[in-house]
Write a structure and sequence with these properties.
- There is one protein chain.
- By secondary structure, this protein is an alpha+beta fold.
- It has 2 domains: about 170 residues, Cyclophilin (Beta Barrel); about 60 residues, no CATH class.
- About 40% of the residues lie in helices and about 20% in strands.
- The protein is built from 7 helices and 10 strands.
- The strands form 2 sheets. It has an 8-stranded antiparallel beta barrel. Strands 5-7 form a two-stranded antiparallel ribbon.
- Strand 1 and strand 2 form a beta hairpin.
- The longest helix has 24 residues.
- It starts with a helix and ends with a strand.
Length: about 270
């Protein structure tokens, strides 16, 4: 009898644990409504600040009547600029927001820029080295399917860019001296200084962690597609689970020289599940 009672208790405890885990893993869902159809987006629990901020703005109606103001076929569609609401076709968009930024929540490599990924837009590294996110602007990845050769080239280019950034950091203090050697046509002095800069940068170059696309990501990028060149630099905080055909329809629209659709794509949002 004691053994039976013990077994029953174990089963009940196991069921409670499963229920708790399922409850903990419950994800919020938002619907984006457009004239082309609706999309459903799941928000990741791994990025709680972005999740909660997005839900808050949706509930407040912040996004209603705003536009998908930037559309690049084979890449992404971008929205969330409050200044796009009712904006004329000549208005330059992309600089608006709620008046604050969000700290980066880059959970890479777990969360990456596969097709359908919802990510936070942000200012570039030169003015935003901490990679803080816009308080409201977001983009949805349409992406493209890559070949293995293209992914290998991307890895090489990303690593080369990292090396160039390190070299530029060490070369900047010597910019005037390098220019002086060039103007004097002093090749020997120029090359000696370049070698010195290389030696100063050597330690950081040797410790550089090279960018490598994980094999499981490569399988996604070579079948489903995405935008792997953004990985590790922007916060991915959700994904489209219904309505990717709507993303494709919007991404295919004719745009002006600012990548804004010629016909406005007006957005309304609502929370389906918190």
């Amino acid at each position: 009898m004691k053994k039976i009672l013990f077994f029953v208790v174990v089963v009940i405890c196991a069921q409670i644990l499963v229920f708790c885990q399922a409850h903990d893993e419950k994800q919020s869902v938002v619907e984006i409504e457009t004239v082309y159809g609706n999309m459903e987006i799941v928000l990741y629990n791994e990025t709680p600040e972005h999740r909660d901020n997005f839900l808050k703005l949706v509930k407040e109606g912040f996004y209603d009547e705003t536009l998908f103001h930037r559309v690049i076929s084979g890449f992404m569609i971008q929205g969330g600029d409050p200044e796009s609401r009712g904006a004329s076709s000549e208005t330059k968009l992309g600089g608006g927001g709620p008046g604050y930024q969000l700290d980066a929540e880059i959970v890479y490599p777990k969360l990456f820029h596969k097709r359908g990924a919802l990510s936070a837009a942000r200012l570039g590294d030169q003015v935003n080295p901490e990679k803080k996110s816009s308080g409201s602007q977001f983009y949805i990845v349409q992406g493209k399917v890559y070949s293995n050769e293209e992914l290998e080239r991307l890895e090489y280019m990303q690593n080369e860019q990292q090396r160039q950034q390190i070299l530029m950091k060490y070369a900047n203090p010597y910019r005037e001296a390098l220019s002086a050697f060039q103007q004097a046509n002093d090749r020997e002095g120029f090359e000696a200084l370049v070698n010195q800069i290389g030696q100063e940068a050597a330690s950081e170059m040797d410790s550089l962690v090279e960018f490598m696309i994980p094999e499981e990501h490569k399988k996604v990028y070579t079948t489903i597609g995405g935008a792997p060149f953004l990985d590790g630099d922007y916060t991915v905080f959700g994904e489209v689970v219904k309505g990717m055909d709507i993303v494709d329809s919007i991404a295919s629209l004719e745009v002006n020289d600012m990548d804004r659709p010629l016909k406005d794509v007006v957005v309304h949002m609502k929370v389906i599940r918190k």
